[in-house]
Amino acid sequence: MLIIQEHDLRNPSPKHSSSYRFNIDSLGTSSPRCQVSLNVNIAEDGGLFSVKDGEAMNVEVASYAGIFESIKQRRSIGHMTQQQPTREQIERILEAATYAPNHYVTEPWKFFVLTGAAREQLGRVMAEALEARLTDTSSHRAQAMLAAERRKPFRAPVIIAVTIPGLRHLHGVEVENIEAAAAAVQNMLLTAEEMGLATLWRTGEAAYDPHVKQWFGLAPEDHIVAFVYLGYPAVSRPTRVPTPFGVKTTWLS
Ligand SMILES: Cc1cc2nc3c(=O)[nH]c(=O)nc-3n(C[C@H](O)[C@H](O)[C@H](O)COP(=O)(O)O)c2cc1C
Questions:
Q1: What mean pLDDT is predicted for residues 198-212?
Q2: Domain boundaries, position 167
Q3: Per DSSP, what are the bridge partners of residue 22?
Q4: What global pTM score does this model have?
Q5: Does 239 map to a domain?
Q6: Is 76 in the pocket of ligand 1 (CB under 6 A)?
Q7: What angle do CA 37, 25, 89 make, to 5 degrees?
Q8: Which end of the chain is more exposed for a tag (fewer CB within 10 A), N or C?
Q9: How far is the CA of 74 from the CAs of 149, 192, 202, 207, in angstroms?
């Protein structure tokens, strides 16, 4: 069973019949794993196929990588091209984030999507923050570090900052609101993975710096949980074999 949403229905076969085979293009048209066959009556209405949003249908999945495969395939990818993911893709990632579990339904997250020149502003703020942390700013090494800091946000065409404003005032235990935001970030990474996009969850000292936080309208005690660097991979996915779960697990019965 797959829940079809109206925006998922793109490029249906031109033939108006009860059987459709199409790509769910928001998952990436080129990916065969996203092809599904629909056996359902879809009425044509003014050239548009009317399907009730959120309607549940039985679909035959031709080839589909499930969540487990996406989890296993996902890797941090540091090198991305400057090709920008579409607004629709970014919105799908943000939407996925909002479905993360969160205690007392505090929905603690707030997102900032930075593209284009906004990355330059973030680089400037990050460099200012680093400059304030350095004891000597005049040396050649310090100047090189500041220049590198300024360039960091250009490592990806899109950066999504996942923040928690007003953390102290949220209902519930503080760490649980951070955990909920972290779960939201993982939803984002996996949704991007499913679309064939590259991600890198970055923090670093910049994420904890009050000057950077202030730029995002945060108080010093608030949190930047992640800078999600997002784009298309410029390198092949690195391999990482995690420690087998058996080593980390105690079964009690
Ligand atoms: C909270 C958090 C912060 C991270 N910050 C950084 C970072 O600042 N720079 C970086 O290169 N990777 C960062 N990472 C990514 C990890 O380095 C990466 O997930 C780890 O090496 C495992 O690799 P994988 O994601 O490919 O499985 C961060 C991950 C988490 C969960």
A1: 98
A2: 75-117+153-231
A3: 36
A4: 0.79
A5: no
A6: yes
A7: 145
A8: C
A9: 26, 9, 15, 23
